[in-house]
Design brief:
The chain is built from 1 helix and 6 strands. The chain is globular, with a radius of gyration of 12 Å. By secondary structure, it is mainly β. Helices cover about 10% and strands about 55% of the residues. A hairpin with a 4-residue loop joins strand 5 and strand 6.
Length: about 100
């Protein structure tokens, strides 16, 4: 199974990320990540889990489901894995083919 990486050029704040994880009523909140692949695109993700990547409090491993995006290949409901830095709001998003 091959995976495809896209760089994240702008993403949610630490506050928005935590709210998306913990505040799920009446429905799941979503966060938006902007990517560069090679043109600017956005993807909306429902956050399933967040894991601290190190002790910095700024580096995170995020797992989520695609809710919407402006690329036809980003199928709704597809699982994504994201390595994200909240201090720079950048990282990488990984899709599995």
């Amino acid at each position: 199974m091959a995976s495809i990486f896209h760089p994240i050029t702008y993403g949610p704040s630490k506050w928005d990320l935590s709210i998306a994880l913990f505040d799920r009523k009446p429905k799941n909140r979503i966060v938006t990540f902007n990517t560069n692949c090679p043109l600017t695109a956005h993807i909306e993700v429902s956050v399933l889990s967040v894991q601290a990547e190190d002790g910095s409090g700024e580096s995170w491993n995020i797992e989520g489901l695609v809710v919407d995006g402006n690329r036809a290949t980003w199928t709704k409901g597809k699982r994504v894995f994201i390595h994200f830095y909240t201090n720079t709001r950048s990282g990488q998003i990984r899709f599995f083919e």
